[in-house]
Amino acid sequence: MNSSEPRSIKITALLSRQGAMLEELRGVIDYINPENAREDLHRLILEDNILRRASISSRKEVYRKLAERYFRKDTPKANTLFVSSFRRVANPDQANLLAFTLLLWNDALTYELSQRWLAPKLSGPIFEGETSDIERELEFMEKAHPVIKTWNPVTRKRIARHYLSAVRDCGYASGSAKKEIRRPYISPQVILFAIQLILGGGEPIVKAPEHGLFAAMGLTLRDVIAALEELDQQGYVRYESQGGVIYLELTKV
């Protein structure tokens, strides 16, 4: 397949329905054929009822939510890559960060909130986030994204709650009512996955290390370059930078 699979840029209220859904994801991903990921997800949840849901309607709902987060219809290559990468990562914390990276790629609101609100908190003093903080951030975003003005207070509160839950579940915070924001260790393998998404999205290879996805992940350019240098040593990429000119090539997946 030669077509690119770009990042989703349409702001939606996807998070109003649920957060990262890591428990459901882990319950099904080991049984998915990477080359047929979305179709297998459908079969496993709706036909095999692998997640043990009581009704067909609840199975359809779980499938829809997981598919829109991690298995978009228009990104078959990314779906294959995600399943393979998730299984290959031995550390569960890094697998959670891998899932968050794909959620950033597939949900524009998560991407924007993470760039604007989360990332600045990761390099400063300890910060405890609440749903009201995210609700205020949504208000600030209304001018750039008028669709947010159409969301009622209940929808906004649900988005805020589910966003903070996703941030916590994926490793960027701890706590229940208040989330203590923390900077997680993000391994080179997670950064490699992000690079693969960026290049698969048709982005210029020389600009990949500076892509906004890394800012949304809370990473600096220095962090990305350090990871690329380590990945180069491990044989996953060929990376060189001379006089501001970057050479980057994926050598194995």
Task: Please describe the structure with a list of short key phrases separated by commas or semicolons.
single chain, 253 residues, mainly alpha, three-stranded antiparallel sheet, two-stranded antiparallel sheet, 11 helices, 54% helix, BrxA, DUF1819 family protein
What features would you describe in this structure?
This protein has 253 residues and is mainly alpha-helical. The chain folds into 3 domains: 77 residues, no CATH class; 77 residues; 63 residues, Arc Repressor Mutant, subunit A (Orthogonal Bundle). Helix content is 54%, strand content 8%. The chain contains 11 helices and 5 strands. The chain has a 3-stranded antiparallel β-sheet. The chain has a two-stranded antiparallel sheet with strand order 4-5. Helix 2 packs antiparallel against helix 3, helix 4 runs antiparallel to helix 5 and helix 9 crosses helix 11. The protein is globular, with a radius of gyration of 18 Å. The model has no long low-confidence stretch (mean pLDDT 95). InterPro entries: BrxA, BrxA_sf.
